Amino acid sequence: xxxxxxxxxxxxxxxxxxxxxxxxxxxxxxxxxxxxxxxxxxxxxxxxxxxxxxxxxxxxxxxxxxxxxxxxxxxxxxxxxxxxxxxxxxxxxxxxxxxxxxxxxxxxxxxxxxxxxxxxxxxxxxxxxxxxxxxxxxxxxxxxxxxxxxxxxxxxxxxxxxxxxxxxxxxxxxxxxxxxxxxxxxxxxxxxxxxxxxxxxxxxxxxxxxxxxxxxxxxxxxxxxxxxxxxxxxxxxxxxxxxxxxxxxxxxxxxxxxxxxxxxxxxxxxxxxxxxxxxxxxxxxxxxxxxxxxxxxxxx
Length: 300
What we know:
two-stranded antiparallel ribbon
């Protein structure tokens, strides 16, 4: 089909001038001079072979015939604007929305995100950590969640690593208190997370010291705070091994006793069933599973 199109700059100048009933105001919108608008309109009139405005001394007014033409041009430009915005929105890389528990995010995920950005340099990502692990990802506008629970309706859950509990403290704390037996913990501050109140008792039962009562129990709002307190030499924390492995490897924390208790829970990467062909979601899932496999290998 051969389009019968007038000069596009000229019809743009005409549409703006028609909307404002003023060459001066049209010039302000188009960032040109009123004379430039007048010349574009005059050229369009010559192209069409008929006048578009009735020109008076101080103002211009559309002719009856050009009023309909101006309205149709406005609709056409509005449609072009909408099409362009829609195209731009779909071609922009969307930001991947990920939920991770705060301790997992701070102590395991963040130190590894650099490798993710190396693999996917153009993929934006946002991390949320507030509240409890979500059950329904769609209602919270999430693409991926890291949580201990497995799959729920309409989701896919893939295992990362199981939780293993170990006691940890600073090297200086061990030296200061001459720790050599589990029973030594009875004379030391034990650091707890209020979100995981049973962890110490479970580990002590596993280690054969379920009757042990600590001299001091100190509670923190999150596991990450309890781990930080252990780093600061305030006592012995019970930790998820994978979440402190970097501190152990760097010598900032030590495991004073070898017993490692698997509490039966496992971290999973979870995403909606509808995202099984989503390249961004699958890319993140494969990356984090690879990082988790490295962690599991180091902890064996």
